[in-house]
Design goal:
The chain has 263 residues and is α/β, with parallel strands linked by helices. 29% of the residues lie in helices and 20% in strands.
């Protein structure tokens, strides 16, 4: 590992340690929500080139490594942008960043690393925040909503815990019900679970990624699944991002209040 790469990981890790697990986005401008990029460096570069400017904050929803051909380049590129623009670029944790807490497959990026490299990457990425919220009704995270007494409790969620698994590994199913147990190691949840927790947390729309076989919108168009990687081929089609105004006077109630763009 080159000295520059090691120093970047250390600087990024220190920055993540100072951030809360729950990011509260500003109340002006626009938010750009970016789905899994999974080693798709070109996708990340396009998002940064187009939207990293005044009036925008960028929220990446996790899964920056594995599956795609340029995992190392992609995560380093995003970490550099985060260090350079800490108040504009937010990197949330996906299950593929949780290697230290729960190993998984496929993990081509992690298995390609030397032990010392894997340890440093794991120690850095396990510090990533878990969710971001807006004042006008959005919660964004990687997978499913955690079962917590209040939204603020998300700041106390520990990697490897049940709420952490819900956030980073959870899937949604278009069916009534609460929790459906685990399928292929992924906890699944239904409409009643979604509606109950969204009401408890005082939010209207969930923007997430993680689940390539999920439809774009579920639960009266309030659960939005986007992907911004070419790693899944035709399963998800074109790379998609979601834009939302942050003004509290412009509430986000469903998919119709978002702007979807292809990059």
């Amino acid at each position: 590992m080159e000295t520059r790469e090691k120093e970047l990981l250390q600087r990024a890790g220190e920055l993540f340690s100072r951030e809360p697990r729950l990011i509260e986005l500003p109340e002006e401008g626009w938010a750009v929500f970016v789905g899994d990029t999974h080693g798709d460096l070109e996708a990340s570069e396009r998002v940064i080139a187009r939207y990293l400017r005044d009036g925008f904050v960028l929220v990446f929803l996790g899964d920056y490594v594995d599956r795609g051909p340029h995992s190392r380049e992609n995560i380093l590129f995003l970490l550099e942008r985060k260090v350079e623009n800490p108040e504009q670029v937010f990197l949330l944790m996906g299950n593929h960043e949780g290697w230290q807490a729960a190993q998984f497959s496929p993990a081509d990026f992690w298995l390609s690393l030397e032990p010392e490299e894997a340890q440093l990457y794991a120690e850095t990425l396990i510090r990533l925040p878990l969710a971001a919220v807006t004042a006008n009704g959005i919660i964004a995270l990687h997978g499913a909503l955690p079962e917590l007494p209040a939204l603020e409790a998300l700041n106390e969620v520990e990697p490897g815990s049940a709420p952490w698994r819900q956030i980073t590994w959870g899937d949604w199913y278009d069916a009534p019900g609460q929790a459906f147990g685990e399928m292929w190691g992924r906890p699944g949840f239904g409409r009643d679970y979604f509606e109950g927790l969204m009401h408890r947390y005082g939010k209207n729309v969930l923007i997430r990624s993680h689940q390539p076989n999920a439809p774009l919108a579920l639960f009266a168009d309030r659960c939005i699944t986007i992907f911004t990687s070419s790693a899944y081929g035709q399963l998800r089609g074109e790379r998609t991002i979601a834009l939302a105004p942050l003004d509290p006077q412009r509430p986000i109630r469903s998919l119709s209040d978002l702007q979807l763009e292809r990059i």
